[in-house]
TrEMBL record:
Organism: Allorhizobium terrae
Pfam families xrefs: EamA
Keywords attached to this entry: Membrane, Transmembrane, Transmembrane helix
UniProt protein name: EamA family transporter
GO cellular component terms listed in the entry, alphabetical order: membrane
InterPro entries in the cross-refs: EamA_dom, EmrE-like
Residues in EamA domain copies: 5-138
Record flagged with keyword Protein transport: no
Length: 141
């Protein structure tokens, strides 16, 4: 079960939901940028422990330049996303912020088609449209 992508995807969704709830409570008493920094430091420490405990370290020189560039870009995008997310949580309701944040699903499909050449069926486009409509309805109404 732990070797299937769906297991980890559902686990990710559950933790993402907890992120919104815990983040909303946590950001109430601190600046949103500082909250993001605290969260990032905790993630850093936990991942250092995981990589160390599982022996997954490798020499930085063994990682190719393309990997470094795209992981750096991903890190920058993640940081920008977290900063924006925590500012939104500071200002709005978690039940409105989280659905808008999940419009990233729609954008991932669009970007996957444009930049990665992924194929999406008409049924999947319909589902993406429903996700977009649902997220907007949750946020606005």
């Amino acid at each position: 079960m732990t070797q299937h992508w769906a297991f980890w995807a559902f686990l990710s969704a559950g933790f993402a939901a907890l992120t919104a709830i815990f983040g909303k409570v946590g950001v109430a008493g601190v600046n949103s940028d500082l909250a993001t920094l605290i969260r990032t430091v905790i993630i850093f420490v936990v991942l250092m422990g995981i990589v160390t405990a599982t022996g997954q370290w490798q020499a930085p020189s063994a990682i190719n330049a393309k990997t470094w560039i795209f992981l750096a870009l991903s890190g920058l995008a993640t940081g920008a996303s977290w900063i924006a997310y925590y500012r939104a949580l500071k200002l709005g309701n978690a039940s409105q912020v989280a659905p808008v944040d999940k419009l990233s699903i729609v954008l991932v499909v669009i970007f996957g088609v444009i930049f990665l050449g992924e194929k999406v069926s008409a049924v999947h486009w319909a589902a993406v449209s429903l996700i977009a409509a649902g997220a907007i309805m949750l946020a606005v109404f």
